[in-house]
Write a structure and sequence with these properties.
Layout: E1 2-8, E2 11-16, E3 26-36, H1 38-45, E4 60-67, E5 80-83, E6 86-87, H2 93-96, E7 107-108, E8 120-124, E9 128-130, H3 136-155, E10 162-166, H4 170-182, E11 185-189, H5 193-201, E12 207-209, H6 215-222, E13 230-233, H7 238-247, E14 253-256, H8 268-273, E15 277-280, H9 286-298, E16 307-312, H10 316-325, E17 331-335
Parallel strand pairs: 10-11, 10-13, 11-12, 13-14, 14-15, 16-17
Antiparallel strand pairs: 1-2, 3-4, 3-8, 3-17, 4-5, 5-9, 6-7
């Protein structure tokens, strides 16, 4: 079968691979859609930590069950599913405490092990989340939305919170989708006029602004003199992440969902004076996938504006560099024939 492999930074190739053999506890699935995410783009640019080449990318997947496997009572052939691509051990302290998303030996599909840029996959049946109503495009968006939903869970947003989301890339957009459901007022900060316009017009964000020396005063003017009580940074930029400590209100909460492969520093007196709470957010929980699927099915979460570009799996070596260089891309979707 056709397999698309990222051979090294900036270079995809095609390979003819054997079809996977399903093991006990696994289901055999046919891949129909692959969402291109920031992790894939970072890997293509050679800036993805914890990554080895060559690698088959692809972890945002909409799939069809071909063989459910023994004991998979909740699955049957023909089911449409989203994939939870976080393969956890089940025995470490994180797994035992219900946090498989940050398993001590976690392997993420398409990052630590080969992913979905191929027609067939054998995966643990427990990692399949089925839906009778969603199409493959929507199912391929569930994982990226789940990351945003989990960041919002970590932020513990309350109805009277003024929330600032920094970074309006794919992960930031997924955060926005859920933050706007829980907060009194929502602001988004980004360097791109196009993305800010998208957030204001299509996502109905209350306040949009660019970073800079006047950002704190602009945020205060937007909310009767108060800074945001919750900040979720989705940039993966050390400067932006460090800057959140100056933009949060007294007693505020900060969540880092964007990953920076290095050190982030802050002024400790400022941190203590404001009695800030800082959280990391990694991946998503199994229950979050269920919540996201239900939200899309009910219409509470609208995925219509997300997909801006499409191409076929076989065209990936040619089209992916174009997508990586195109600032107008919100979400590219790869179609598998």
């Amino acid at each position: 079968m056709l397999q698309i492999v990222l051979q090294q930074p900036g270079s995809f190739g095609s390979a003819n691979a054997d079809e996977p053999v399903r093991q006990p506890g696994q289901a055999l699935v046919r891949v129909h859609r692959i969402g291109v995410c920031g992790t894939d783009l970072h890997a293509f640019r050679g800036k993805q930590p914890f990554f080895n080449y060559p690698r088959v990318l692809g972890h945002e997947l909409g799939v069809e069950v071909i063989e459910p496997g023994e004991g998979a009572t909740n699955l049957q052939a023909g089911d449409r599913c989203s994939i939870e691509p976080y393969l956890n051990c089940g025995t470490c302290i994180a797994c035992r405490r219900g946090n498989p998303n940050c398993c001590a030996v976690l392997k993420v599909l398409g990052v630590h092990i080969d992913g979905g840029m191929q027609p067939l996959l054998a995966l643990p049946a427990r990692k399949l989340h089925r839906s009778e109503r969603l199409n493959y495009d929507q199912l391929a968006l569930v994982e990226t939305l789940a990351i945003g939903a989990h960041a919002v869970e970590r932020a513990q947003i309350e109805p009277d919170d003024f929330v600032l989301v920094i970074g309006a890339g794919p992960i930031g957009l997924s955060v926005i989708q859920f933050a706007r459901l829980h907060s009194r007022k929502l602001a988004v900060m980004d360097i791109s006029d196009t993305r800010l316009a998208f957030c204001g017009k299509l996502l109905k964000v209350d306040v949009t602004l660019k970073p800079g020396p006047a950002a704190a005063e602009e945020l205060k003017r937007a909310d009767a003199g108060d800074l945001p009580s919750v900040i979720i940074d989705a940039t993966g930029n050390a400067g932006s992440m460090a800057g959140t400590f100056d933009l949060a209100s007294q007693g505020g909460r900060i969540v880092f969902v964007g990953l920076f492969p290095g050190d982030v520093t802050f002024n400790d007196p400022n941190f203590h004076r404001r009695e800030l709470t800082l959280c990391g957010s990694r991946n998503a929980l199994p229950a979050t996938f269920t919540t996201v699927i239900a939200g899309i099915e009910s219409g509470e979460i609208d995925t219509t504006p997300w997909i801006t570009h499409r191409f076929a799996l076989a065209d990936t070596p040619i089209r992916f560099p174009e997508i990586a260089a195109d600032p107008t891309v919100l979400k590219a979707m790869i179609e598998v024939d």
